[in-house]
Amino acid sequence: MATTTDAGPEAPAKIHAKKRPGDLVFSGTALGAGIIILAVLAAVTIFLVIESIPAFTTPSDENPLLKGQTFLEYTWPLVFGTIWSSILALVMAAPVAIGIALFISHYAPRRAAAVLGYIIDLLAAVPSVVFGLWGGLVLAGFVQPFYVWLNTYLGWIPLFSGQVSATGRTILTAALVLAIMVLPIMTAICREVFLQTPVLHEEAALALGATRWEMIKMAVLPFARGGMVSAAMLALGRALGETMAVTMVLSVSGVVTFELLTATNPTTIPANIALQFPEAYGTGVSLLIATGLVLFVVTFAVNAIARWIVNRRAEFSGAN
């Protein structure tokens, strides 16, 4: 018979499951991978901070790249060009990516969807230098007459005003190349999110008499909102850090302007580092590293905002 005390029956002893060697190896490997990621991120941050200190402590007259400017005056046009070109690329790529993802997931026949998905994934494997060559040698000349048309008939809009570039190498051309580069990753993420929409939600909307587009608007898009935002922010992060494509397409001037069609264009931080680094020395190298630190902070902020937006939608799931 089980013995009891005044406090009640004795609690059964806990049984500890024996950990197998495979479980220990797997958990240790996962923990080590997480620690490595944090260590690499910390190492990069420490390197950027330490190497950029001379750029802040040395007088601007002694820095060969500042030429009498302050750090803010030198960096602000670069930050503007980086964010401006990336936003333009995202505005052009997002609707196309969402449309392609919806076509693959809900409209295209299975074989056509598989082929189109393979082509989109293959586009992501093209090196950025190839996009840069194509943008500078082919796309710029192809779109230049269209820029003239925009300036002629829509020149009253500030974005399309000014003297049109004769070469077509403008911030808009660079944004077009960036949009094509970020299109595959955004399309792939949106496609997977759309396919995860609960089938019961879709069937319920169709059973109530909704058309296919109404079903997508009521069931698919609300469910995938967080995933679409995450895909857009990931694409924005890719555009912010792109170097060679912008360097080979854009004719840079280092100014702050919203005009899209002129030869006077802002440049981006990665492109400026790629152009200036071979001839930089001393505190000039520290200045370029400091601009890299600014880009690191901007990219980190973009990803943090994306994570915050996605977490706000985390409570909405197929189980609700």
Automatic annotation (TrEMBL):
It is a multi-pass membrane protein. PROSITE patterns: ABC_TM1. It is found in: Cell membrane. GO terms for biological process: phosphate ion transport. The chain crosses the membrane at residues 24-50, 83-104, 116-140, 146-164, 171-195, 215-236, 243-261, 281-306. GO terms for cellular component: plasma membrane. It comes from the Bacteria. One of its GO terms (molecular function) is phosphate transmembrane transporter activity. Keywords: Cell membrane, Membrane, Phosphate transport, Transmembrane, Transmembrane helix, Transport. Pfam families: BPD_transp_1 (PF00528). Part of the binding-protein-dependent transport system for phosphate; probably responsible for the translocation of the substrate across the membrane. Belongs to the binding-protein-dependent transport system permease family. CysTW subfamily. This is Phosphate transport system permease protein. It comes from Microbacterium schleiferi. The lineage of its organism: Bacteria, Bacillati, Actinomycetota, Actinomycetes, Micrococcales.
